[in-house]
Design the sequence.
């Protein structure tokens, strides 16, 4: 097996030399074709004017950073009608003009940024051998093209917070692509209706049970079917169920204690826990919240004792909380 098998793919290039420094693996490469097209007149030229070297960062190899030494030829344009006299050859599939990283390295950093964000992405990229700042990771994420929304058939709509509690806009999701396709400036019926009018292919609108998006959908796409999305239905059901159970907290506790009286291992004297006065609904809700906070407090201390980091504990508690709410069971389908 050739050593080149273990090196990053370099489309349109041949590897001339591979060497190592303390910092990186260095690959010297050049184009495989003898000529190039003028970017203005598309005339093919093989008359070399000069050469220079670019040194973009490439995908790492075995965790070690890889730097290219790319030999770039500058050609004379032989078309007498063309204004351009010389041009540098392009490596369209390998690296964009003036870019400091190859296309594949930028794409990997973009995927990392989308998955875990800028700061965590920067730390991970350093461990992977492709050191990058958080700002650069986020720049690659922002430069990614949004999916086309011109032929969307099913759209999910909900509020999206620029800053929670202060400024809200509207996020629109293609239900077939399962991906966001647009963000509106605000969360009003007017802007949603205007968006729908510019997308007449919409057939299904999945929304919350509020009136704002229902109004916008009726005005902007009267032909579309409106459905309440699964997340909001289950979220509303959970809230209603919690209120009902809190209202019957005393009955449930009495039923539990009566059941436990028949168990031989039941501790003697627990009957004294039955409150002399039944708590009000507000007290019941307060007690339920207190019990949830105590459970989270206990879980945090247990994870910390097991050696978990603060960030990992935060993620775990958040995930458990979302799972308890049924958040991750909801999909747009
Ligand atoms: Zn030309």
Sequence:
């Amino acid at each position: 097996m050739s050593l080149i098998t273990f090196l990053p793919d370099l489309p349109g290039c041949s590897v001339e030399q591979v060497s190592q420094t303390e910092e990186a693996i260095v690959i010297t490469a050049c184009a495989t074709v003898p000529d190039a097209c003028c970017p203005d007149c598309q005339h093919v030229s093989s008359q070399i004017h000069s050469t220079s070297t670019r040194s973009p960062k490439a995908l790492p190899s075995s965790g070690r950073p890889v730097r290219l030494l790319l030999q770039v030829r500058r050609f004379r344009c032989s078309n007498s009608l063309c204004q351009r006299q010389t041009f540098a050859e392009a490596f369209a599939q390998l690296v964009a003009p003036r870019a400091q990283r190859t296309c594949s390295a930028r794409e990997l950093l973009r995927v990392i940024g989308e998955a875990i964000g800028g700061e965590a992405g920067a730390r991970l990229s350093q461990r992977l051998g492709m050191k990058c700042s958080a700002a650069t990771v986020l720049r690659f994420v922002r430069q990614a093209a949004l999916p086309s929304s011109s032929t969307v058939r099913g759209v999910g709509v909900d509020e999206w917070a620029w800053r929670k509690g202060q400024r809200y806009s509207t996020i629109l999701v293609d239900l077939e692509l399962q991906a966001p396709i647009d963000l509106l400036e605000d969360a009003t019926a007017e802007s949603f209706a205007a968006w729908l009018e510019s997308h007449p292919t919409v057939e299904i609108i999945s929304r919350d049970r509020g009136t704002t998006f229902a109004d916008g959908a009726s005005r902007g796409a009267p032909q579309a079917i409106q459905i309440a999305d699964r997340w909001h239905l289950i979220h509303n059901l959970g809230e209603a169920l919690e209120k009902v159970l809190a209202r019957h907290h005393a009955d449930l506790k009495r039923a539990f204690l009566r059941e436990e009286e028949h168990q031989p291992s039941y501790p003697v004297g627990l009957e004294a826990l039955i409150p002399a006065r039944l708590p009000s609904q507000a007290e019941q809700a307060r007690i339920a919240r207190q019990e949830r906070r105590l459970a989270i407090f206990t879980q945090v201390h247990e994870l910390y004792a097991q050696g978990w980091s603060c960030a990992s504990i935060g993620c775990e508690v958040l995930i458990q909380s979302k799972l308890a709410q049924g958040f991750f069971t909801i999909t747009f389908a």
